[in-house]
Give the backbone structure.
Amino acid sequence: MVCALLAVGAWASPTGLNNIPTADVTPEGLLVLQQYTNVRSAQTPLYYLGAKAGLDRNLEIGLDGCLGSGPGGPAVGQVKYRFLDNDDRLSAAVGIANITNSRRAGKEAFYIALKRNLSPDLRGHMGFLTQGGDHAFFVGADGSFLHTGWDWKVDAIQTHHGDDWLAAVGTIGPLGKNVLLEAWASFPTEDAGNPTFMLKFDWVIKTR
């Protein structure tokens, strides 16, 4: 996922759905290398590289950066800790994203995310995020496409101090043994808001 912007800047991308983080973390001993492209109508596409790793079963770290001189140019980091892990009921995590010493990237973002398994094929998510004086609630859900190995995912997050929303719908699934494809479209509610399309490749590497 790539977190939605509340202030001008970029986000490192903690494990999540489309534009929201979740209580899930990268499994321990895995490194995920990521390349993703952000396309918005009438604008030049933005290209990103990133990586995230599971340091233990409840701790994830990551680093992302935009290629070139786009608004996400500086490298930004993220840390997430899952303090409650109950797959049968409720899981919860806290995190910090957009960690950088560059003013161009904006402020750090702090969040709490909750996950509830509603059935074997359906999960619900919600949480709260704050970044530089702006605050947002977010919600989402994901599930499987009839046990095909592909999942659907939908989410929405408040923007502009709660005056608007950014909704998204997408999918994720395997392209090969260690490669995943993520794709989604985001739809802002603000006036003249144009949809944004994201295409993302994840290479999963075992480190231990």
Notes: The domain at 30-206 is CATH 2.40.160.40 (Porin). The radius of gyration is 16 Å.
